[in-house]
Write a structure and sequence with these properties.
- It is a single chain.
- The protein is built from 9 helices and 33 strands.
- The chain starts with a helix and ends in a 12-residue tail after the last strand.
Length: about 600
């Protein structure tokens, strides 16, 4: 099909001129009252979980001038359950003067967590102890109230330094374990050595460092090291790639920065402290909402105590319910697999045997296994039905325009793919087609079908040279199959990609004179995607990564008209003339002569 007729088809479908608005951070909604939450425990396997961070509470526990109510509301919220909060970390300065009476008060508040065996960590700030000392100071009211003995019933506590002021915790979230270090006010050289030894004993765990002093921020929210913080960076953080996030209080205003460690990886440095705000900060918490599937950490800061009272608050109090500036309400993009690859690489699962993919009704199954970079000749059909593929090279194209690749989707059965380097105007590249003797060439799939494949598009796919490249289709037009509706020059079946990188499954069904079309959303580039077109004999549904797309037609569409041609892998043919070869990677491809349930897809 020429570009003008394809554009006409697009215009009729309402796709030309469409745009998409992207928000940096999804709307998080108003904070709910803590009293509405249940008491179920966190889900350690859910890829979405929250780390709660509690900064300086010192003004709430200041001799006879404090008030535990804000902290009590915050701790009730943390154990409520709806946020899937897996751990709470206090950043120090629990009290104002470090006196026994103050620690008695805050200790009673933390008993709410103890009774529920909810995991948490604390550390001493400069107001909790004599600030001129380091972690070799000996016994203090802080150590009496929050020393290692308090954590004996904790399921995450893994030990403390000999002085008792530094601790480490391992919590499970998102299906893996995470290490959290809680370091004292200005730990000594021995304290930093202890922290290095903890990291060395847990070499595969991503680590979060909590400490009272590390960075401070200017009024614009740009963080930088304090003099002592620079020492901690040089002696602990920079050389330990496991530490990807640091959290500290002590200073205000809040702020953040990103610094590269010795391995060349980002470390996110955050300061959070609200003691200068109304009511000593109102026991505000910082919620770090990890989403491992989205590779993002959404961050939100608010006061559950004020949120509980929202209908009764005056203007000053309402302003303090939630902090929405860029230092307190933001998202971090973290490719967790890549960031942790240096110390915790994700093991590559072995290939799944080909015979396990030969489910009932399999018509053809192709996997592309060959030496990385080697040109492709033919490809055997592993179903045993004889639907083998032969290579076709477009004029002027080199053998390397279609080659084997060592890249693959971790979800596909095999561990290799094909790399197509095609284009148009002029047509170039290489592709595969079923041999003339292939039984599949005679199929109309009147009882239903499933076509599924793994696809990856390169960064330059949208440069205008690859629109309507196809990954699978039939050589032979609808017109040659006797169809006169829409554009008879269109292939009788094609799974193509628009210039905006959206899938289009377009077929001339046996029972229709025109084209039946399914459309996907626009796809991400440089990511492996699974696509499946499923027809049950009447309806066709397009799936992307196992999820049905919106724009699937309800009009009955039975089978695929047969113009008498071969099936093509990696080529688009208009009026039986190949206009271009595909540009990108193609993993395993399977065709089944019935409608598959998504649970039967090759997604594993």
């Amino acid at each position: 099909m020429n570009d003008s007729s394809r554009r006409t088809f697009l215009r009729g479908a309402g796709l030309l001129g469409a745009g998409a608005a992207v928000s940096a951070l999804p709307a998080l909604g108003a904070p709910a009252a803590s009293a509405t939450f249940g008491h179920h425990g966190p889900d350690a396997e859910d890829g979405r979980f929250t780390l709660a961070v509690l900064p300086d509470t010192q003004y709430l526990f200041d001799a006879d001038r404090g008030d535990p109510a804000p902290l009590d509301a915050t701790l009730r919220y943390v154990t409520g359950g709806d946020e899937n909060i897996v751990f709470l970390a206090h950043l120090g300065d629990l009290t104002e003067n470090g006196q026994p009476g103050e620690f008695d008060q805050i200790s009673r508040s933390f008993q709410h967590l103890d009774r529920r065996r909810f995991p948490y960590s604390t550390l001493a700030g400069n107001h909790d102890i004599k600030s001129s000392t380091d972690d070799q100071r000996g016994r203090t009211p802080y150590l009496d109230a929050f020393g290692p003995q308090r954590q004996r019933g904790s399921r995450t506590f893994r030990g403390a330094s000999p002085d008792g002021y530094n601790s480490h915790h391992v919590f499970r979230a998102g299906g893996r374990e995470w290490l959290l270090l809680a370091l004292d006010w200005r730990p000594s050289a021995g304290g930093l050595e202890w922290a290095r030894s903890v990291l060395a004993r847990n070499p595969r765990l991503p680590a979060i460092l909590t400490i009272h002093e590390l960075v401070w921020a200017d009024e614009a929210g740009q963080a930088q090291f304090s003099e002592f913080g620079q020492r901690v960076w040089d002696e602990l953080i920079a050389g330990n790639d496991q530490i990807f996030l640091t959290l500290n209080g002590h200073f205000w205003p809040p702020g953040r920065a990103v610094k590269r460690n010795n391995a060349g990886n980002d470390v996110h440095l955050h300061i959070t402290n609200y003691q200068d705000r109304y009511y000593g900060g109102s026991a505000m918490i910082r919620l770090y909402r990890f989403d491992l599937a989205r590779n993002v950490i959404d961050v939100r800061t608010f006061s559950p105590w004020l949120a509980d009272q929202a209908p009764r608050l005056n203007e000053l109090q309402r302003r303090e319910i939630e902090r929405t500036g860029p230092a307190d309400y933001f998202s971090l993009e973290v490719d967790f697999e890549s960031r942790f690859a240096g110390f915790a690489p994700v093991p590559v699962p072995p290939a799944r045997p080909a015979d396990r993919q030969l489910i009932r009704g399999t018509v053809a199954y192709w996997r592309f296994e060959g030496r990385d970079g080697a040109p492709v000749g033919g490809v055997r059909d592993l179903s045993g039905r004889g639907n083998d593929l032969v290579r076709v090279t477009l004029p002027g194209s080199a053998p390397e325009a279609l080659r084997f690749s060592g890249e693959f989707s971790g979800r596909q059965p095999s561990r290799s793919s094909l790399r197509f380097d095609g284009g148009k105007k002029p047509a170039r590249g290489g592709y595969l087609r079923t041999a003339d003797s292939a039984p599949m060439n005679a199929e109309t799939f009147a009882r239903g079908y499933t076509v599924e494949a793994f696809v990856k598009l390169p960064a330059d796919f949208k440069d205008g040279k690859h629109s309507w490249a196809a990954i699978f289709g039939r050589q032979g037009s609808g017109g040659k199959a006797g169809k006169t509706g829409d554009d008879p020059g269109e292939p009788s079946a094609t799974l193509s990609l628009s210039d905006g990188a959206a899938f289009q499954w377009a077929v001339f069904p046996v029972n229709q004179n025109g084209i039946s079309t399914c459309w996907s959303h626009e796809l991400a580039l440089q990511e492996w995607i699974h696509v499946a077109a499923v027809n049950d004999g009447r309806r066709t549904t397009l799936y992307v990564d196992g999820c049905p797309v919106l724009r699937n037609p309800k009009t009955p569409a039975t089978g695929i008209a047969n113009p008498g041609g071969s099936w093509l892998i990696g080529a688009y043919a208009y009026d039986s003339i190949v206009e271009q070869a595909f540009h990108g990677w193609l993993g395993d491809v399977r065709v089944v002569g019935r409608a598959l349930d998504p649970r039967e897809f090759m997604l594993g």
